Each structure stands twice: as structure tokens, then as C-alpha cells.
Amino acid sequence: MLDSEEYVEQAYFFRTLSERLPQNMPLQELLRQAREELLASTKLPMAIDFLRSELEHTGVFAPAMSRLPHYFTPFQTYVVSEAENEQGQFDLRVALEILRAEAGYRSKEITPQGLFLFQFETLCRNRLQYDRGLASLAEDPSYDDDWREWIRTVRRQIGLIDFADLLYVRSEHYVVARARRFGGEAELEKPVLFGEKEGKIALANRGKDPLFLFAALQRHLGYPPIPWPKPHDDAQELIPQMLRRLERIETRIKLLEDEGRGGIDLAKLYAPNGPDAKGT
């Protein structure tokens, strides 16, 4: 785990890249600009120098992030690698917004429940690979051994067992319901990872789309939502398009007026050429 100021600077770095990507500037230049704006007391400027050198040689910087596991988490590296995959449809700006939100969440007091649900929803909502994605989660130092063991279980059973069931059986609500059913305190087979409210919400969302479960947890328990790309706003392009159409309409009206006055003077439509053009 890094200091909170490192995550604050990471969040600013990813947000800056996301906002400046539409400027069509080289990514190396964007990294250089962002580096100058960051706190020199953090380790992020040195990490950016390494990313720039790797970017200049290979054209991508996910491999460089993988070589800095003490600074960038495996999940961050995986998200960037999916965005840089030419065969995929995962946009780099969406990836940067996700990393910005995750770094912002890490800069505060985080819980393993909130972090896991944020990361797992990222995989679900963006249709990323569960196998590689969950493998990267299991290597995150933010989780203890119990969490890593459960994440590996989810990795093996996702798609076979409903995720709501996987969450429910590791919740306090399941323990209480089992004790009420069998009487007394039931012996725990696995450590409890989620609270009673999480278990109730998971039970109510069995058999449904996991995105409904994530949304309910965010509404009722304040878990962090993941960024979602905003629809493209065509308002800025609308006025230039209207001006071009008006120019074409004006040209057509002039042609109709010329035709009504006895014919169209083609000389107005073509630039004069030849040495005797002025004398004709």
C-alpha cells in the first residue's frame, strides 16, 4: 500500500491524461506535461519517466507498469493492457477514468469489500476477461489471505454459480439465517467477508444481472460506482454543420435565380485559366 498522497497524485495524473487525450497530442508529450504538474515529493514523476521511455520504444506502457509492481497494482496494469489491446473495444479514456476513480478511492479510507466490488464491476460492465482480471485482483496487496482465497474461488466458479450466491454465502446474513434454521451457532466453514446488509441485498438479487446487485449496493451502502462513458454531445458540431448546409442552400438559390433570368453563367463557377483568360 502506498501513502495517500501517492494515490491523490495518481488520480490527478489519470484525470489529466483522460481530459487531454482528445487534443490529439502525442502521448509522450502528455506524459511530459503531466509530470511537470505533479508533486516532486512523490514517486509518481519517476514512474512516469519510466513509462515514457517504454512508450518511446514499444508504443505501449502497460508492460512498463507491470515492471513496477511496487507502485502500480496488477489491476491497474491489466486495465491499461486491455485498453491498449488493438483487438479489443475497451477505450483508453474509459480505462483512465476507471483508474482515476480507483486511485481516488484508495486515497481515502478504503474497505476490501468496496475495492473488490469496484474492481469486479469494472470487469463486468466493460466485458473484460474474468480469468485475467480476477487473477490480477488476487495479486493485489490490499487483500489479505482470506480475500485472495475467495477471489480465486470466484475466478473458478464465475459463470457456473451466480455471483449473488457467491457473495451471499460469505456474508453475515447467511450465517445468521443458517443459525436460525439449524439452531444455535453454526460452525463457520469459511471466513465471513461481507456484512449482513450486503448478504440481504445479494439474496434479493439472486438470478438477476450482477449490475443490478452493484447498483443496489451503491444505493444502500454507499459503495463507489465506476465511471461510465457519457454519450457524445453533438451540440458543438451542430452549428458548423448548419452553416455548411446554409452555404449550400444559398448557392443553389443563386443558381435557380440565374436560371430564371435567362441562363446560368458557367464562367462564375470555374476559375479562369490560360494566358488569354482576362481578355475573354
Low-confidence stretches: none
Mean pLDDT: 88
Specify the biggest β-sheet. Answer: none
The tally of helices reads 14
Shape: elongated
Distance between the termini: 83 Å
Supply Rg. Answer: 28 Å
Q: What percent of residues adopt helix (DSSP H or I)?
A: 55-70%
Count of distinct strands: 0
SSE succession: HHHHHHHHHHHHHH
Number of domain units: 3
Determine the strand fraction and express it as a percent band.
under 5%
Structural class: mainly alpha
SSE topology:
Layout: H1 4-20, H2 27-37, H3 44-58, H4 62-66, H5 74-83, H6 92-106, H7 112-125, H8 130-138, H9 145-157, H10 163-168, H11 172-182, H12 196-204, H13 210-221, H14 235-260
What would you note in describing this structure?
There is one protein chain. The protein has 3 domains: 1-109, Type II secretion system (T2SS), domain F (Receptor-associated Protein); 110-230, no CATH class; 237-280, no CATH class. Helices cover 62% and strands 0% of the residues. The protein has helices spanning 4-20, 27-37, 44-58, 62-66, 74-83, 92-106, 112-125, 130-138, 145-157, 163-168, 172-182, 196-204, 210-221, 235-260. The longest helix is centred in the last third of the chain and has 26 residues, at 235-260.
